Amino acid sequence: MLVPNLLKSDVVEIVFDGSMGYGSSFLEEAFGGLVRLGKFTKEILHQKLSLKYKEDPYLIEEVWHYIDSAKVQA
Asked: What InterPro entries would the database entry show (predicted)?
């Protein structure tokens, strides 16, 4: 769902509210994986993603960390 929406939209808003939490492995795979698999550059994701989570603002920093530290697989 994320990749098709990123391809067709200028900005994709993701609201994490209403959950009991998110595992780091899920977040790394879902967001870092976009860069690692060569789907999107870090710069494009910073332009296209709008991330919101009222309950734990640190989660947003964690997602950006996974994106920014991901390396494209050769």
From this structure: DUF4325 (IPR025474)
For 9-20, write each residue's pLDDT tens digit.
Answer: 999 999 999 988
Is 29 within a domain?
yes
Angstrom CA distances, 40 to 21, 26, 56, 67, stand at: 25, 18, 26, 10
| Structural domain contains residue 74 | no
Token duo for residue 13: 């808003």
Residue 53 in any domain: the answer is yes
Would 45 be classed as within a structural domain? Answer: yes
pTM above 0.90, yes or no: yes
Q: What is the CA radius of gyration of the chain?
A: 12
Residue by residue, DSSP assigns 10-60 as S-EEEE-TTSS---HHHHIIIIIHHHHTTSS-HHHHHHHEEEE-SS-HHHH
How many structural domains does the chain have?
1
